[in-house]
Amino acid sequence: MSSRLKQLTAGQQSNNWQAQFFQHMLTGLLATAAHYLIMLAALSTDIKPLLASSLGFLVGALVRFGFSYFHIFVVESHISGALLRFLAALSIHMALNAGMLMLFMAVGLQVWLAQVLVTALLTIMNFLLAKYWVFK
Length: 136
Prior knowledge:
Elements: H1 3-8, H2 17-44, H3 49-72, H4 79-106, H5 111-134
């Protein structure tokens, strides 16, 4: 493995924001996969898109918290404090996810295109909250 790739996958061994962002992005892919799989399953049972997305979002959030707390960030607080801050950030993120999804669908975007766009727009906000507040 190249030295640059080792730096990017260092996780908690490094407080380097680039390594943490890379790990955050990988964890985000796993969390998004969980989100979309649950959303797909829910939509296939005729659950409305907003509820299906919200259920998927919650499962994806659990995936993200576990990886972020135990691998990515150098956490300075007990898990209970990090979890409370994570839940607060999650509430903000979920409200933005739902609101943006409704907005994009209202202007005519198909549900999956709208969800992908929402996910991309919220990624950077999510990292900054995680690094500088949730996992401090």
